[in-house]
Structures are given as structure tokens and as C-alpha cells.
Amino acid sequence: MSRRVHSFALSASLMVIAAAWGLTGCGGGGGGGEGSAGATPAASTPSSGAGGGGGSAVGTSNQPPGVSVSTGDDAVAFLPVHFSTATTLDAGVTITASNFNYGDGQTGTSPTHTYDKPGAYTVIYTVTDSKARQGQGKTQVTVKACSMPAMAAATVSADTIHVCVQTNKGEMVFALDSAKAPISTSNFMRYVNDGYYNSTVVHRVQNASPDFWVVQAGQVGVNTDGYFIKTPVNKYDPIELESNNGLLNKRYTLGMARTSVPKSATSQFYINLMDTPVFDYAPGLRDGYAVFGKIVYGTAVADAMGAASTVNAGGGFAYFPQQELKILGMAAK
């Protein structure tokens, strides 16, 4: 009897307002490949997936499904990873069930999955046929914090701490200056490592002032119910102000947002989209805002965010973007 090949690959995607924000001192406010020919794994024994989305195969009759699974994606945390599968069946036999174990504690039927942290994962695809026999294919996927181009940019940067930032507008890499801003860097990384910034939004785009142009984020979250203030508002205690560290508020630098109280910065940060000397420390004149890093990849993403039109949504959201600007997640390189 002949056996026939089934193959598929899918994809998927995701989006609503609450109150409160800081920085009040800043001016108001499918892989291809061949299916594994003649694969005859035992019903409970995994076999390594040999190919991607298709191929032809002929096998011996009265055998469980021959299964393979693979991915050709540059797998990156917080972005969809697509798996391709191929299944070889005896003639007259159909698939009655299929399931993925994505290796991160989650299972499902979709060949598209998003990992929320970098790491090495073993993916197992199980198929059950109409004779209640099972076959399995297995593959390894290494999920990175950054895409390959972003990783290359981070490697060139002399800074030792890099954070990959995935957004619905594209990818950025933040390079943090732990030598000149150790307190601010350590604080920011606590939130990154806790996953605090994952599924948050830019809640302030102020682009009409002649003195500054900023994009601010770090406190407003979003889920299927809409926007909400992260709870607790301040996960860690406010930090010391490091504005007098020699780092200036230049274009594409990162700073810690705060209230009018100098030592009040917590989770919120901003991106300068122009040189902003009015934010710099000036003895006897102003306390300034602490710069702790810069963008070394994806400046066009920041520019796109900064061009967003805004609306006064009330409740403190005086410059809320009309289009959702979502941070999918952050991970240290």
C-alpha cells in the first residue's frame, strides 16, 4: 500500500485606556525540506524530525504515522516562531489529532508559537491516526534575545549590557552604560529581568515642543481587556538621581523618567528624539534627568514611535498615542 504526506504551516497575530504617568518635570504633562521517507517510529517513541513543510514519502503498510517537524525561522523571543511539519500515513488512514509540545511548558495545536524568553527548547509534534496509532517528530529550537542583524549591532557596541526590545513597530537594541550610570542601569535591568516591561505600551509621545521630543514608557500595560496601570505602580523603591554622571540627553539616549522630586525614578524611562540640553544637570539651576544608555540598533523604530499623533485622553494622559505603540517584550542579550 502507498502512504501519503500531509504538511502544513500557519501563522498568527494580536490589541484598547486607564490613567497616571510620570516625568512631570519634563515640561508638563516555513522552512522547507524533505519529509522523512519510510519513517516508522514506534507509537510511543519520538523520532527526530527531518524536514520542513512537505515532501513525498512511501512507507510500509500497517505502520504508525511517520512525522517530522522543523523550523527555518531566526527564532527570537516575543516574536512568532513558525514550525513546518510533514506526516506520512498509510493509504486509507487519516489524521484524527495533532498536538505540539513547545518545550516551554505550553502545548497547543498551532504550528506558530511565541516564546517569552530566550533559551534552547525541544519541540515535539505528535500525530494520532484513525487507527489510534501515534507518531512523533522532534526538533530543537534556539530562541535568541535579538535577531541576527540586531545581535551584530550589539556586538559592535562597546557597551557591556545590551537589551533587545521587540515592539509592534520593529526591533531596537538598548546599550546601557553601567560604568557611568550603575544605579539606573541596575534598576532598569531588574525590571527587564522580571518581565515587567513585557506587554506594556508607550503612554507619552511629546513631539510638539521646541525644547524636547520624547517617547515615554514603562508603566502602562495592555491585555485583552484594555490598558491598565501596572500593579504595584512602583515595584521597587525609587532610586538615587544620577544626572550628574557626564552623560548628556542627546538624540537616541535613554533616561529615567521621574516626578518633580529628584530621587523618584522607578520603572518609567524615556527616549530622547532630539538633543535635549534642558534635561541635563546644571549646578544651581536644575537637577536634570539621568541618562543611562542609548539605542544602538533600531533608531528608525524610535523615530516612527515619536511621529505618532496623540490625544489628551484625560486622567494624566495628555499625550497618549492614538495608535497603539506596544512593547512586546525585553530581554538581555
Describe the protein's architecture and organization.
This protein starts with a strand and ends with a strand. It is elongated and about 85 Å long. By secondary structure, the protein is mainly β. The chain has helices spanning 148-156, 182-193, 299-306, and strands at 3-8, 47-48, 66-70, 80-82, 84-90, 95-101, 107-108, 112-114, 119-129, 134-143, 161-167, 170-176, 200-206, 214-223, 226-229, 253-256, 269-272, 291-297, 310-311, 320-321, 326-332. A hairpin with an 8-residue loop joins strand 19 and strand 20 (320-321). The chain is built from 3 helices and 21 strands. Strands 11-12-18-16-17-14-13-21 form an 8-stranded antiparallel barrel. Strands 2-10-9-6-7 form a 5-stranded mixed sheet, with no helix packed on it. A 3-stranded antiparallel sheet has the order 1-5-3, with no helix packed on it. Residues 1-58 have low confidence and may be disordered. It is 9% helix and 35% strand.
